[in-house]
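Can't paste images in this forum, so I'm doing it all in text. The chain is below; anyone willing to post the predicted structure tokens underneath?
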Amino acid sequence: MSERKDSYFPHAWLPVSDWELADVTAVQAMERGEASPEQQKRALAWIINKACWTYESTYSPVNAHDGSFAQGRRFSGLQIIKLLKLNAAAISRVKK
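Text version of the structure:
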């Protein structure tokens, strides 16, 4: 989780500001299909934790629209986590 002051809530629609050059190169290498295992992990971690705000509160003291937008971002991260945790072999057995 990122460290934020209690009174700080960025507008959910603003560009994500928490990234490092290594995050950029990892995401770009993943898109090209050339990412090392470490880059793949870094890119996925950045997407889940920074881009999607998966583990952040979506409450907005600013306005309801910002909170709703933040919840939409978080939903994407939750869907990625869901796929990471599903037992694909069990699902295949059930579908047969």
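Residues 21-95 form one domain. The helical segments are 21-32, 37-51, 64-85, 88-95.
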